[in-house]
Amino acid sequence: MPKRRLSARQIERIRSIQERRRERLATRPEQALAELDAEVEPEEGRVVVRHGANLAVEDAQGHVTHCLCRQNIGHPVCGDRVVWQRIADEQGVVTAILPRASVLSRPDYGGRDKPLAANLTRLVILIAPEPEPSGYLVDQYLVAAEIIGIEALIVGNKMDLLAGEARAAFQHSFAHYPAIGYPTYWISLREPHSIDALTAALAGQTSVLVGQSGVGKSSLVKALLPDREIQIGRLSKATGLGRHTTSAATCYRLPGDGSLIDSPGVRSFRLGEIGRQQLELGFRELHPYLGQCRFANCRHDREPECAVRQAVIDGAIAAERLANFQHLLGP
User: Fold this and answer.
1) Rg of the chain (C-alpha set)
2) Cα dihedral sign for 253, 236, 246, 223?
3) What's the pTM?
4) Nearest-10 crossing angle of helices 135-148, 319-329
5) I need a labelling partner for 237 at 20 to 30 A (CA). Which of 162, 176, 230, 267 fits?
6) What is the pLDDT of residues 273-301, one digit of tens each?
C-alpha cells in the first residue's frame, strides 16, 4: 500500500511540535544550572552512556549519575572526560568537556564531522568469511585509526566456518596486515578460549568494535562481556533510561580494567573526505618511500621512476593496499 502523503498543513504542524520539543529539551540543562549549589565542588568523570540529551557520568569511585549537559559546551560522547556538578535528586549537570586524547568521528548527512566516541586507544576491526570481507573497508578503518593516533587490531571471526585449505587461504589473503604491524587474531565464538588473546590485548584499553553488518559484532560484545546484563541493569537504574539503555551509546567495563564502547553510530562508521597528506599518513607502509619518486606530485599509478610502485614489485607493499590508496585518493 502506498504511503499517504502529508499535506503542507500537517507537515508544518509536525515541524512546530518538533521545534517545541527541542526548545523544552534545550532549557532543561539551564534550568538545572539554577539549582547548582556554590558550595558543591565540581567533579571530573567519564561519560559512560549517552542517549539524546541524557548522559550517565561515572565518578572516580565508580558511581554513576544521570546528568544533563550545559548548552554551548559541545556534544559529549561516550568516553569523554567531563566536569560535572551534583544537583538535587541525585542528578547532575555537565558543565565542560575536557580535552580529548582521541576522537572517532564520521561525516553526518551535511558532510560535517560528528563525534562518535572519545579517548579511544584501540580500534578493533572485525571481519568474517561470511559476509565476504572488503579489504577496501578494512583499509578505511585503518586510515581512520592512523589519523586519530590509536592502535588498530584485526579480528577474523566465525573461523569455524572454514577448515583446512580454505581456512589457510582466507588467513593468507590478510597476511599483509600483520606484516606491516597490525595485530591479527583468528577466533570462533564456538571455541571460547579462542578469544583469550584478544581479551588480553584489550585489557587496560578503551576499545570500540567496527565492521560490516553480519560479522558478529553483537555476539563478540556478549562474549567479551560475560556480565553485560548486570552492567546494563546498573546503568539503567542510574540513568532511568530503562529499555533505552541497550540502544544508547554505552561504555562497558571489560575484564582487566579495560572499557568497550558500543554505539549505534560506530556500527555504521565510514571514512569522510580527507586530504592527500592525511591519506598518506593512513598507509603506514608507504612512509619510507614518500618523496623518493621522480615526480613530487606522483600518484603512484603510471608515472615513471615511482618508488612506491617499485616497492610493490619488490613485495614490500601489497598491491591491494596501493589500489585502495589510489581509490581513496580519487581522480
Assistant:
1) 23
2) positive
3) 0.83
4) 70
5) 267
6) 788 889 999 999 999 999 999 998 898 98
